[in-house]
Amino acid sequence: MAIIHSFPSYLNLRSHTHGHSTHHRLTTISGCKPKLNSISLIARSSSSSSHSNALLFEAAKHTVDTYVESGMVVGLGSGAASCLAIHYLGQKLSVGQLKDVVGIPTSVGSASDAAKAGVPLHQYQHSLQIDFTFNDADIMEEVSLNAVIGRQRLEGDESIIEEKKILDVTKNLVLMVTEKQYKSGVEGSIPVLVNSVGWMETAEEIDDLFVGDAEVWRRACIGRGHAGPTGGDFPVVTREGHNVLDVIFTSPIPNLAEVAKLLDNIDGVAGHGIITKTPCRAVIAAQSGLCIIDNTTTTILIQAVASVVGNGSTTASDMFHHHRLLPSLFFLSSLFSDVEFRDKDFLESVFFVSW
């Protein structure tokens, strides 16, 4: 079963193109302090390690230090950065810097990490109010902060459904990613949970929906050798009894939210790995520092500045793609919120932006 299909034309997949990357030279006004509820850049010293674990630890440490307070109920995410955040949270609890924090694990792995770190745990219950949750994302869509989870780590004892329930009900959500995972056009696979009875019919319907732009493979258990598109004799079965289909896109996905809606409307689909939540913050670990983005404000801000700088010809997506510009966009909004901007020369004179 080599299920290869494409988007319907209304998703405009083939019209989504990217030009050559343009580098901007920025000098921001000194003394301006970025706000965490918009866009900010936290600079890193030149002597900091470039190793990915070091970058993720900085993201994890910042997330716990900034957003976790004593007395909170905290959703404990899954993945490498979340593991580091859980252990750092345990250290702060052990020395009394935080008190009375209760963790709600999103997976078996995060529950194990929390137990080792000494973080008190409760199981998720429907009526429970969760103050804050952090989690890893496998890949993230620029501007919207829509993301994909479950690409790498979903085995039989894990549950995308349980993880997404916690992410959906939390009051405040932070997703941690590296700059390589932060994309203007999301590529690769989306895990889709389907009923094990009749899974082939569901796979064929997904196949027809994305004809020409995606391959659909049933996920096999790790260590069972080459299983092929059908998953072989040992497909993954989640604890809810679902099979996992990996819908592998061969072209950039222009709109994750639209894909999520299409999948939600297919009979036999029990869930998928697409996260769409507002409000949501992203903590992006980059070589140059941590970039913190809030999806409740970035879209409006970038659209406004793009219309000024681009004189109507530059899209918000184009502007956002050059995320070296983000700190200055924030400073622009925070310092001059009452000023009506009309020309590009003024912006260049304030921020020394070289286009």
From TrEMBL:
Catalytic activity of the protein: aldehydo-D-ribose 5-phosphate = D-ribulose 5-phosphate
A molecular function GO annotation: ribose-5-phosphate isomerase activity
Enzyme class, broadest EC rank: isomerase
InterPro entries: NagB/RpiA_transferase-like, Ribose-5P_isomerase, Ribose5P_isomerase_type_A
Keywords from the named record: Isomerase
A single BP term in Gene Ontology: pentose-phosphate shunt, non-oxidative branch
Family: Belongs to the ribose 5-phosphate isomerase family.
Protein name, per record: ribose-5-phosphate isomerase
Phylogenetic classification of the source organism: Eukaryota, Viridiplantae, Streptophyta, Embryophyta, Tracheophyta
